[in-house]
Amino acid sequence: MPHKDLLKGAAAVLALMVATSASADLVLSTQPRGPHSEVDKPFEELAAYLSQATGTTVTYKYIDTWLAYAIEMQKGRFDIVFDGPAFVSWRMLHRDHEVLVKVAGAPGRHVVAVRKENAKFKTIHDLAGHRICGRPTPNLSSLVMLNEFPNPSRQPLIVPAESYDDAFEKMMENRCAGAVVSESKFKKLNEKDVARAVIVTEPLPKQAISAGPNVTPEQKRKIHEALAAPDAEKYLGTFLKKYADGKPFEAADPAAYRDHHILLKNEWGFGEKASR
């Protein structure tokens, strides 16, 4: 009968849609990290490894600006992402992402430093309205520093730096009152005891990989198992050396990432009213 044929046709179309969705390519991306020549090889290595693990083509998408990264993320165009805890948390809350693995190791801290002889700056709040050298937001270090100033009108002015080394050097050249760097980098840069910390921030979890709703539960399981496998470094040597300090991946605790979206509250499109 005609209605039976119609039902059969609808069922066939539905099955095709499900099969197509299940086999669709997945998009891997990360925050702006430099030119193609530096970024492509490690992330293409990661994409190839994940493609083999899932049986689905994982394609790496290069992003060159923070604005493009924000727009693409807010539109839900990334299926698998490697970045820091603030973005991981935001995607968990607003884009139904699940954090799968993180770079192994203890949570990290950041330091806001001043020149040692600059006695007028005793606490972080003494730097309100002053110039601080650091990576432009939404780099994690600067987000953490600005979070210490709930009143935006009191926030320091960030003088853009290319790296932690550059921020520290500019501070020592008196081009800014302070510098925001990672705690580990501060210890290396301050071996001659020329600076002091006005604050050491609360620890934050390591960079992690999250996966969105287009990644099936089975694919997520395979990604987790592949990245946390003891022999993963044989296939991800370039990636781990460049972006994980040579450390492996390990299981991530979602609770450790859940609340850090608050660091993005003043960044365009990432506030509490972020659209779905």
Low-pLDDT stretches? 6-22
> What coarse outline follows from CA principal-axis ratios?
globular
Give the C-level CATH assignment of the largest domain. Alpha Beta
User: Portion of residues in helices?
Assistant: 25-40%
Instruction: Quickly count the domains.
Output: 2
Give the N-terminus to C-terminus distance in angstroms.
43 Å
| Global mean pLDDT | 92
- Provide the CATH superfamily of the largest domain: Periplasmic binding protein-like II
Main beta sheet = 6 strands, mixed
What's the count of strands?
11
CATH topology of the largest domain: D-Maltodextrin-Binding Protein, domain 2
Strand order of the largest sheet: 2-1-3-10-4-11
Structural class: alpha/beta
Signal peptide: 1-24
Pfam families: Phosphonate-bd
Protein name: Solute-binding protein family 3/N-terminal domain-containing protein
Keywords: Signal
Report on the architecture of this protein.
This protein is an alpha/beta fold. It has 2 domains: 2-105 and 205-264, D-Maltodextrin-Binding Protein, domain 2 (3-Layer(aba) Sandwich); 110-200, 3-Layer(aba) Sandwich (D-Maltodextrin-Binding Protein, domain 2). The chain is built from 10 helices and 11 strands. It has helices spanning 2-23, 36-54, 66-74, 85-94, 140-146, 164-172, 183-189, 217-228, 237-243, 254-257; strands at 26-30, 58-61, 80-83, 98-103, 110-115, 131-134, 157-160, 178-182, 195-200, 208-211, 249-251. Strands 2-1-3-10-4-11 form a 6-stranded mixed sheet, sandwiched between helices. A 5-stranded mixed sheet has the order 7-6-8-5-9, with helices on both faces. Helix 2 crosses helix 8 and helix 2 (36-54) crosses helix 9 (237-243). The longest helix has 22 residues, at 2-23. The two termini are 43 Å apart. The model is unreliable at 6-22 (pLDDT under 50).
